[in-house]
């Protein structure tokens, strides 16, 4: 079964990391379904039944996003609120549709990995910041996987980053 990649980036056109990941993933349509939330829902009104059906057709789900203000972009939070509802994701016998599905995150961060360490600028590890996703996965019975992160891609105009190709192509292998 294919892996569903839920992409939440408010400005994909000007993205380097997430756009590169999508391009990489789209080379393997037999393995991945790439679903761009901001592109599909410019008015932020989800077709919830469609989103749930999409998940039900995949046993592995990756949430892919850039870290914004130590969190996910807001449309992904709304997607969780709207799609992971009572009776589908939890709370009734017919619910728990996430149960047993693998769930992983693929995130890009502007700052260096060292900054996300007890000695670094932010003191907390990215793992700590992403904990709400882990707890949510546990709550709905999903099988939470270690996240994949690419650090150090702060947006500095004029600066041309050399992509670490092995790191970028590692995304398809996270689950
Ligand atoms: C509004 C905003 C908030 C951001 N907040 C964070 C942050 O909290 N932590 C961090 O590491 N990077 C932060 N960044 C940097 C982005 O995560 C980084 O530019 C992005 O992951 C690069 O991926 P992209 O090339 O796909 O856009 C922020 C960027 C923006 C525009």
From TrEMBL:
InterPro entries: Flavodoxin_fold (IPR003680), Flavoprotein-like_sf (IPR029039), KefG/KefF (IPR046980). Residues 1-158 form the Flavodoxin-like fold domain. Keywords: Oxidoreductase. GO terms for molecular function: electron transfer activity; FMN binding; NAD(P)H dehydrogenase (quinone) activity. Pfam families: Flavodoxin_2. The keyword Iron does not apply. This is NAD(P)H dehydrogenase (Quinone). It comes from Advenella kashmirensis (strain DSM 17095 / LMG 22695 / WT001).
